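Support reply, case 0932

Customer input (verbatim):
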Amino acid sequence: MIKMLRSVAAGAVLSLGAATSLFSAECIAPANPGGGWDFTCRMITKIMYDIGAVDSPIQVTNMAGGGGGLAYGHVVNERNTDDDLIVAASSATATRLAQNAYSGMTYDQVRFLGAIGADPGVIVVAADSPYKNLNDLLDAVIADPAKHAFAGGSAAGGFDHLKVLMALGKKGFTDISKVKYIGVDGDADAITQTVGGFTAAMTGDISGVVGFIKSGDVRVLASFTDERIPGFEDIPTAKEQGIDVVAVNWRGLYTPKGASDASYKKWTDALRKVGDSAEWAEAMAANGLAPFNKVGANFADYVVSVMAEVQALSKELGVMK
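Our regenerated output:
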C-alpha cells in the first residue's frame, strides 16, 4: 500500500482549471504534493473510482496558498455552483475559519461533506536531533525559545501551531509570543525545514511523515493520541510522557455551497462507500490514520462545535482576540 500511495502521490501535478474531458470531476488539494490534504484528495478519489463509487477518475489539482485560504476563496468566488468539485479539508481548515484567517470568509460559505479518518498529531525531529523524547525538546524550548523553531503545515496560529502551544502550556509555559513557528504549505514542506536543520522540530500529522519515517530521515518524539497509533506502536504518546494533550486531525471534504442537493447526496454517498471499504481500511493502517466516520449533516454540526472550541482556546492562548 505504501508503494501504491507513493505512486499516486507522484502523479503529475495537473494545471489549475476545470477538469478536462478525461475526468468526471475535480478534487482540489489546498497544498503542495506530499502533505495531508494531497493525501486526502489522491487516496480518497482513487478508491472512489476503484470501488465504483464514481464512474470516472477524478482529477486532483494542487492549489497551495494561505493555509488553504487560496483554495477556499477560489471555491467561494469562482466555483460556487460546481456540482463536480470537491475539496480536501481537515481540522486545520476549521481552525483557520474559526480564527477568521480566510479574509472574512466563513464556514457556511461551503458545505462540509464529511470525514472518514483522523490523522493523529505528531512532533517530529530529524534523525540526528539531540532530542530523544518530547520533554527534552519542550524543556529546551522553554529554556531558550529564541534558539528553537517549529515548522508546520498550517499557518501561524493554525492547528499545527496550537498543538505546540498546548503541549508547552501543560508544562506551565504561557509566554507564547516567544515560541518561534514557521508555517508552510503542507507537511512535506515542514519536514524539509526540519530535516534541513532550519527548525528544531516539525509539528504535523502522521500521514504526512510516513515516508520520512520509513526512510529513516526523522524520529517521531510523540503522538497526540490517547493510545499508540496502530501500525506505529513504537511511537510513544505525549500522555505517556506526562503531556496530557490529544490532538487529531480529521481528514475530509467540502463542496461548493451553491452546488445542487443531488450532487451533495452523490458525494456523501461516495464518501460513505470509501469509508466502509477494505481499501480505505488498508490505506488507514498503512498511513497511521484512525477510524473517524462522520458524513453529512452530523459532520457539519460537528465542525461548528469544533470551531467554537478552537475560538475559545485561541483566545485563551492569545492567538486571537
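We compared this against your earlier run and they match. Two observations from our side: Residues 297-317 form the longest helix (21 residues). The radius of gyration is 19 Å. Please reopen the case if you see a mismatch on your end.
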